[in-house]
Amino acid sequence: MRNFDLAPLYRKSVGFDQIADMMDRMISTETASPSYPPYNIEKTAEDAWRISIAVAGFAESDLGVEMRENALIVTARKAEEIDEKTYLHRGIATRAFERRFQLADHVRVTGAEYADGMLHVDLVREVPEALKPRQIAITRAASADDGVYDSQAVN
């Protein structure tokens, strides 16, 4: 495992703590990321995405979608049931899981939909109006030559 020292990044930058923390978290986590359940991330528009997670074997009531501290957290807990079936092969995993997705600033969840064993979570980036670029009007400054002055007021 490689170790990276991010201390120089902290010393030479101001206001980028969140990026450095995210890089530090990504480096320090296990290299073998969990592969269950499989998922897709697709870009649906310029500032919109959809995360599709294969959740075969789970009912809509078994799933949870939560947004907390710039993270999307998808959980599944199968209700305990008495299973009297005898399986010769059980390939559909219905074990509990928690999948986290780190979200950028101003990205929020607009909806979640369950259909055909897939959970679709829609995301959109909504930059606040105060942070959007805006055009500043340039006005001409008044100069002494522009106006006519009263000679008595000047003396």
Any idea what the CATH architecture of the largest domain is?
Sandwich
Number of strands: 7
Question: Tally the helices: what do you get?
Answer: 3
Query: What's the arrangement of strands in the largest beta sheet?
Result: 1-2-7-6
Share of helix among residues? 10-25%
The tally of structural domains comes to: 2
CATH fold topology of the largest domain:
Immunoglobulin-like
Structural class: alpha+beta
Integer average pLDDT: 80
Distance between the termini: 82 Å
Description:
There is one protein chain. This protein is an alpha+beta fold. The protein folds into two domains: 1-33, no CATH class; 36-140, Immunoglobulin-like. Helices cover 14% and strands 32% of the residues. It is built from three helices and seven strands. The chain has helices spanning 7-11, 17-28, 151-154; strands spanning 39-45, 48-54, 63-68, 71-76, 97-102, 107-115, 118-125. The strands form two sheets. A four-stranded antiparallel β-sheet has the order 1-2-7-6, with no helix packed on it. A three-stranded antiparallel β-sheet has the order 3-4-5, with no helix packed on it. Strand 3 and strand 4 form a beta hairpin. It is elongated.
List keywords for this structure.
Immunoglobulin-like; alpha+beta; single chain; three-stranded antiparallel sheet
How is the secondary structure organized here?
Layout: H1 7-11, H2 17-28, E1 39-45, E2 48-54, E3 63-68, E4 71-76, E5 97-102, E6 107-115, E7 118-125, H3 151-154
Antiparallel strand pairs: 1-2, 2-7, 3-4, 4-5, 6-7
